[in-house]
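MOLECULE: protein
FOLLOWS: sequence and fold
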Amino acid sequence: MNTKINTESGARHRIRDLDEAITYLSGLPGFAVLDTRLRPETESLVAEMETAPLPRLQGFDWFDKWSEGYLALVTDLASWDSFRIVLYGSFYPESSTLLFGFPNIVPQSELTQKLDTRLRARLRYWHQRSSAKLAASGGQGRRDLATPLARNLNKLRLECGLSKEVLAEETCLEKKLILGHILHGKSAQPKTLKTYADTFTRLLKRPVTPDDLLAD
């Protein structure tokens, strides 16, 4: 029962986060022009796929067009976070459905497994492109964050390519607590610092200590 409740709660949080991310990105300058350009291109692909046999390889083009278009909106941490949420929560699952004809498919044949691997590679590619763009813009070392802990957590989070939501999952800490440490300059208990350090050590495959997190 608890597992079911936790799963349902997680699904609600993901839907809410996706709605918030789409709302944020759609309010950015340039979104209207971008959306106006992309919709005719992607809608023509969808129309083409309606009569195409499965698997429909145009799903890759659909995924790349939306991902590349929205990448132009990434200029800071907030837009990067929103881009990643939309990438994982909307573009990727929708392109998989277009490709295979069904949502949440588990590839069985050699062909579908290869196509699924290829699509996951595209997902990682756009994830990496967004992280690289953020780092190039100076977002990785933001000095406007209030404390050394905030800056170090944020730098390591970006180095791992994690949204705050995924960092919460990796550390088993509440997202609200993580936001407090990164965005609001709150201090962390020794136990929490060790949790962060152990998580980044595991993900980055190099030692990260609590002292590293507090270093200015």
Summary: The chain has two domains: 2-137, 148-214.
